[in-house]
Amino acid sequence: MKTVPTTSTYHPAGRRGPALVVLCFVQFMLVLDDNVVSVALPSISDDLGFGTAGLAWVVNAYFLAFGGLLLLFGRMADLLGRRRVFLTGVTLFGAASLVCGLAQEPWQLVAGRFVQGAGAAMASPAALALITLLFPGTEERARAFGVWGGVAGLGGTAGLVISGALTGLASWRWIFLINLPVALAAVVLLPRLAPESRAGHAVHLDVPGAVLGTGALVSLVYGLLRTGESGWADPAAFGPLGLAVLLAVAFVAVEVRTAEPLVPLSFLAFRFRAVANGATLLFSAAMYAMAFLLMVHLQTVLGYGPLTAGLAYLPYGAVILTGMWLSARAVTRLGVRPALVLSFLISAAGLLLLLSGVAADDAYVRGVLPGMLVTSLGCGLGLPALTVAALTGTTEENAGLGSAVLSSVQQVGGAVGVAVLVALAARHSEVVAAHAGLRSAVTQGFSLALTVAAALLALGAVLLAALPGRSHRREEAPADTAERPADHGNRT
């Protein structure tokens, strides 16, 4: 019988560091493209002649493909090989970036952004699965995820600054063309640093499950994007959201009856991992909405330009890096669950502190910065620990699936948070604007949304703290011992 490497002997230690660097640089590129177009949209519109509705799809096409295809490509990585799917995704992303950078018509840019999102949906879960197998122990995995999360957080923060600088000093086209050397380096270097890995036994792709699951995610993300653009009163948003529910029900019905399902119910039933993904949903909803609304506050209330507002986020990114550096130590000394509860409570406290300092006449340093720094510390503590928890028990059989589920939860949580909390803030601002000034109305809407976001984080802390202690210790076992199949080709 063919021997398949287990996670404990998956990779020589000497090359794990360089492999992690390559994977992190790719993740930086993928996260950067989440928001790198935001500042450049006016220049893109002037150059290519976009209408207002079409311009929104320069952003939305990427999110639609990325969020909708994660589950499918994550499972394909387990079946076809994580390195193969990662390299295919990076190649696709690089080629699409070239198309975007050279686009002469609006449809070419939108199509390129969609293909970029598809490439990201292939590369991101496969990269996270490779890291999961490269670093099997809880402590070393926490450190690796700290580096991974730190680079991703830096990409999210740097996107606005880099976009503003490239658009102002050169051309908006360079925000896409700078992806090419990163993609090329990854394609050349990673095959020399990380071996191939896939599920240890022959598994066929669950085609009906893949179609239904992908359709449900695409419909959900599309519906949430529509509500974010036009509000919950838009009838066009209800159709996709209703379709997403129907497809999700059909997906569950198919998975129950399929011998080799796309998402095995036993995978979803693993309690600590399930609670971690639920907490990730709440965390993403709160933090995505906070970041969006804070950018609006900086520009609308404080009067910052786009580049200045992006620079105002740099302390947020710096403290996130500090929090992620501390996260591995917190996981090692306290355990995953206490570290997560602590991070959620710190983030909630930061939002409440930010809430107390965003009056219309409060300046950035006195009003915004203190709450921003506390929130970013909690966010930095939480992101690596959430990743460790959500991938607890994953093996060579399902590391790609676990990574894809986590990434999907993050994308959907962020979309839900922005759609719901931004709509809540806007509606409250409209009510207040009837008897107050614009700046005061926007501030009060922002404050209400921050209150709800803090409540979501507090709910997440309660859910995590409610896990029984005994089950928690068992389920925090390193991934190379938890949930390992009795015999799927891992032994000769």
Structural notes for this entry:
This protein is an all-alpha fold and 492 residues long. Helix 6 (138-169) runs antiparallel to helix 13 (306-312), helix 14 (314-334) runs antiparallel to helix 15 and helix 14 (314-334) crosses helix 16 (364-390). The model is unreliable at 1-10 and 470-492 (pLDDT under 50). It is built from 19 helices and no strands. The chain is globular, with a radius of gyration of 22 Å.
Helix and strand topology:
Blueprint: H1 13-35, H2 41-48, H3 52-80, H4 82-102, H5 106-134, H6 138-169, H7 174-177, H8 179-193, H9 207-230, H10 235-257, H11 265-269, H12 271-300, H13 306-312, H14 314-334, H15 336-355, H16 364-390, H17 399-433, H18 438-465, H19 469-475
Helix pairs in contact: 1-5, 1-6, 1-8, 3-4, 3-5, 3-9, 3-17, 4-5, 4-8, 5-17, 6-13, 6-14, 6-16, 9-10, 9-17, 12-16, 12-17, 12-18, 14-15, 14-16, 15-16, 15-18, 17-18
